[in-house]
From TrEMBL:
<dbReference type="InterPro" id="IPR058353">
    <property type="entry name" value="DUF8040"/>
</dbReference>
<comment type="similarity">
    <text>Belongs to the HARBI1 family.</text>
</comment>
<dbReference type="InterPro" id="IPR027806">
    <property type="entry name" value="HARBI1_dom"/>
</dbReference>
<keyword id="KW-0540">Nuclease</keyword>
<keyword id="KW-0539">Nucleus</keyword>
<feature type="domain" description="DDE Tnp4">
    <location>
        <begin position="71"/>
        <end position="152"/>
    </location>
</feature>
<feature type="domain" description="DUF8040">
    <location>
        <begin position="1"/>
        <end position="39"/>
    </location>
</feature>
<dbReference type="GO" id="GO:0005634">
    <property type="term" value="C:nucleus"/>
</dbReference>
<dbReference type="Pfam" id="PF13359">
    <property type="entry name" value="DDE_Tnp_4"/>
</dbReference>
<keyword id="KW-0378">Hydrolase</keyword>
<dbReference type="GO" id="GO:0004518">
    <property type="term" value="F:nuclease activity"/>
</dbReference>
<keyword id="KW-0479">Metal-binding</keyword>
<dbReference type="GO" id="GO:0046872">
    <property type="term" value="F:metal ion binding"/>
</dbReference>
<dbReference type="Pfam" id="PF26138">
    <property type="entry name" value="DUF8040"/>
</dbReference>
<protein>
    <submittedName>
        <fullName>Uncharacterized protein</fullName>
    </submittedName>
</protein>
<dbReference type="GO" id="GO:0016787">
    <property type="term" value="F:hydrolase activity"/>
</dbReference>
<dbReference type="InterPro" id="IPR045249">
    <property type="entry name" value="HARBI1-like"/>
</dbReference>
Length: 170
């Protein structure tokens, strides 16, 4: 049931009809399995050092010597209760959640922070990511590339023009 719910983004009500179990049982067991997965995740999730680029990947990032990746926010459509809709309405008028995604130069996710209301700006979400207990870590002397939705600050920059002196077309 756990994998079925995750793989197909199913509601407990749908699983209730498929497996002939109560929604309370499905919820309880889903959360039990989720807690178990979180407990063993440290043993099975191995994080790689993102500074080991080789070949063409290293060639693409040569202009950004101290960069450890890029970050940006994206809006994902959600369904919320009627009283919460104003908070989740983004600048385009859609109901969404703002998710911060951080990728290394190898395009693998380093950090993801979901759950912010669509009305929250990218800088606000990043500020929260830097202050949380399991915060986004930026080593000294390194930075992430960002777009204009973020102000320049320690650890992230949207203005790399000073560091890029020549751009070669390949």
């Amino acid at each position: 049931m756990f994998l079925h719910i995750l793989a197909h983004n199913l509601k407990y009500r749908v699983v209730h009809f498929t497996y002939y179990r109560s929604k309370e049982t499905i919820s309880r067991q889903f959360n039990n399995v989720l807690r178990a997965v979180m407990k063993v995740s440290g043993e099975y999730l191995k994080f790689q050092d993102h500074n080991n680029l080789e070949g063409s990947e290293a060639y693409k990032w040569r202009w950004f010597q101290n960069s450890i990746g890029a970050l940006d926010g994206t809006h994902i459509p959600v369904t919320v209760a009627a009283e919460d809709k104003p908070r989740y309405r983004n600048r385009k008028g859609d109901i969404s959640t703002n998710v911060l995604g951080v990728c290394g130069p190898d395009l693998k996710f380093i950090y993801v922070l979901p759950g912010w209301e669509g009305s929250a700006g990218d800088s606000r979400v990043l500020r929260d990511a830097l202050r949380r207990q399991n915060h986004l870590q930026i080593p000294n002397g390194k930075y992430f590339l960002v777009d204009a939705g973020y102000t320049n600050g320690p650890g992230y920059t949207s203005n790399v023009a000073n560091e890029v002196t020549t751009i070669q077309v390949s």
